[in-house]
């Protein structure tokens, strides 16, 4: 964990000097310098006072870099294709257990001839178009603004039954950080 670098980065971004932190926390400049260079590990109580002086939540100082906000700009999205119809999949963002993607289904295309299953739970929001979704004995048509969800371990399929490209926002939650093969 690189708490010291995080503290230094926040302090510099906010134009706060080490002296100002020390004045507010009662810590010595030498100690703060050692904290910022990761030469010493402060106690939780000390971190709490440093966080207060920096006006950030204590928990933020404890996050690893990969746990912090991840930004994916529209023009930087990873794009893949999926299934026999090569559906266009835009990977929006992800955490260890949640992935979000935009899937484009041209008219008449689907997620596959046969329903498929994989680990996790999915939530879908139809952004545009008209789709037909099926899982087991349940099925329905969905239009712009409609949403649905399911446990993905039950075989399911989605088909564009409209005359224009359908766009569906999908959030996928998995217990592990593994990805279903269609996600890659």
Automatic annotation (TrEMBL):
UniProt xrefs under Pfam families: Cupin_2, HTH_3
Keyword tags: DNA-binding
Entries under SUPFAM superfamilies matching the protein: lambda repressor-like DNA-binding domains (SSF47413), RmlC-like cupins (SSF51182)
Domain HTH cro/C1-type residues, every copy: 7-61
Protein name: Helix-turn-helix domain-containing protein
Organism: Paenibacillus chartarius
